[in-house]
Specification:
The protein is built from ten helices and nine strands. The protein is an alpha/beta fold and 264 residues long. The structure holds nicotinamide-adenine-dinucleotide (NAD).
Length: 264
């Protein structure tokens, strides 16, 4: 493996090799090598869509915002992204008995496709849609329980309905993601806290570690006694408390490091 400035490759391999309950905490950066842009990449989603338009309240209030959101989702899935070497490495680490699961801020479902389990999705999933009710308030979905794969929305839009409603109760339907201004799904943070609190190693990968409260989860792991490794291509606010910081690309670093850890 090529050494990078300040990159203690043997140190990373040793931490992975000796871990028994590692938990990965991943962000948009783990999926850029699968072709899904993060928030800041040139050409990324938010350089073409205005985030202030895509709040939960705007979604509820505006049929136009809902129609634009379906178009955005369609674009998200259009290129059929697949897990990359970093997603696969984390699944292999788990399969070999070194890791206990993944907590992700991502909505792309690539960890599940790679074989990780459990995967705690703190910001929900774009692979499903859900009824959020007729007039949800305070950023809280208030639906009837209807859910469907994301393809349901695509089918409705293709059939000529730009703003599909719930087939059960007539409520609004939204991707099962946590939008700006939306409350996190109940129980999910608790599940993430439990997972990270039992970890012996937290591997933070491809996250700017700036979106709270999710970014507090690695800190909780450290407070509970876990070592912390940060793999990111730019500095993060948590670098100072990490046992090891690897400045590099997720797939290029994790793929070979996990392979070496599992060989030794
Ligand atoms: P972020 O965009 O704030 O940060 C991503 C970080 O990863 C950045 O620091 C970036 O420099 C780094 N990075 C990019 N490519 C990398 C690579 N190949 N290897 C290593 N580092 C890389 O993302 P975030 O911290 O996850 O938070 C933003 C929010 O964006 C999250 O809530 C998430 O829900 C949402 N989001 C998700 C997806 C997805 O599901 N794939 C995509 C875009 C945004």
């Amino acid at each position: 493996m090529q050494a990078m400035p300040g990159y203690d490759a043997p140190g990373l391999v040793e931490l992975l090799r000796t871990s028994r309950r590692a938990v990965a905490f991943t962000g948009a950066g783990i999926s850029t090598e699968s072709g899904i842009p993060d928030f800041r990449s040139p050409g990324g989603v938010w350089t073409r869509y205005d985030p202030s338009e895509y709040t939960f309240d705007r979604y509820v209030a505006s049929a136009q915002v809902r129609a634009n959101s379906w178009a955005m989702r369609r674009e998200f899935f259009a290129h059929n992204a697949q897990p990359n070497a970093a997603h696969r490495a984390l699944a292999q680490l788990e399969e070999a008995g070194h890791a206990a699961g993944v907590i992700t801020q991502n909505i792309d479902g690539l960890h599940q496709l790679a074989g990780s389990s459990p995967v705690v999705e703190v910001h929900g999933t774009a692979r499903e849609v859900m009824c959020i009710g007729l007039a949800p308030r305070d950023g809280t979905p208030d639906g009837c329980g209807f859910t469907a794969p994301y393809t349901w929305g695509e089918e409705q839009v293709e059939a000529g309905d730009p703003d599909p409603h719930c087939p059960v109760c007539g409520g609004l339907v939204k991707s099962a993601t946590v939008s700006f201004g939306q409350m996190l799904f109940p129980g999910v943070v608790q599940q993430a806290v439990e997972l990270v609190s039992a970890a012996d190693l937290v591997i933070a990968v491809g996250s700017s570690l700036q979106v709270f409260p999710a970014a507090d989860l690695p800190v909780q792991g450290v407070k509970a006694g876990a070592a912390l490794v940060i793999i990111n291509d730019e500095p993060t606010p948590l670098d100072g408390i990490a046992d090891l910081v690897v400045r590099g690309r997720a797939a290029e670093v994790l793929g070979p490091a996990v392979a070496e850890a599992l060989e030794s």
